[in-house]
Amino acid sequence: MRLMFKERETLERRSKQFALRIMRMTRSLPNNPEAWVISKQILRSGTSVAANYRATARARSRADFVSKMGIVVEEADETLFWLEMLSEAELLPTHRLDPLMGEAKEMLAIFASSYRTARAATRSTDHEINRSEDVPRSSDHQIDKS
Predict the structure, then answer these.
(1) 8 C-beta neighbours (distance < 10 Å), count
(2) Closest CA to 17 of 9, 5, 28
(3) Degrees (nearest 5) of the Cα angle 18, 22, 24?
(4) Cβ distance 14 to 22 under 8 Å?
(5) Which of 79, 98, 107, 94 is nearest to 22 (CA)?
(6) Does 142 have pLDDT greater than 90?
C-alpha cells in the first residue's frame, strides 16, 4: 500500500511539473493567430492532466476511478497532439518540444496502462457480481412436500 501511495505522489508531482512546463512553453510561442489557438488548447489540456490525475485520488468507487482516469488519458493524448501540431507547424524549434513530447508520451503510457488495468478489474468484479446473481438461492425454490 505504501508503494502505491509513493507512486501516486510521484505521478502527481510529475504531472504538475509537466503542467508548469507547458505553461512556460506557451509563453515562448510566437504572437500569431495559429499560436494563440494552440496555446489555449495546450494550456487547457496540459494543465488538465495534472488536475484530473489528482482528482482520481478522491474517486468514490472503482468505477469513478476508471471514469476519472479515462479523462486523464484523453487529456494527456490531446496534449501530445497539440505538441505534435506545434512541431509540425514549426512554431517552436524541435529541441524545445522534444523533451515535452517525450514526457507526454511516457505519462500517456503510464496513465493508459493504469486505466486499462482498473477497467479490466472493474469488468471482472462486475462479471463476478452478475454471476453470483445468476446462482439460485435456496429461498428461490419452493419445496414440494407431496
Answers:
(1) 15
(2) 9
(3) 115
(4) no
(5) 79
(6) no
Is residue 34 within 8 A of residue 50, CB to CB? The reply is: no
Please tell me what DSSP assigns to residue 91. S
Measure the CA–CA gap between 82 and 111, rounded to whole angstroms.
18
Predicted model pTM: 0.81
Helix count and strand count (H, E) for the chain: 4, 0
Between 140 and 10, name the one with better pLDDT. Answer: 10
Domain 12-124 top-level CATH class: mainly alpha
- Burial, 77: exposed, middle or buried (Cβ in 10 Å; 0-12, 13-18, 19+)? middle
Reported as a single tens digit per residue, the pLDDT across 54-66 is: 999 999 999 999 9
Q: Could you state, in order of their start, the residue ranges of all structural domains in the chain?
A: 12-124
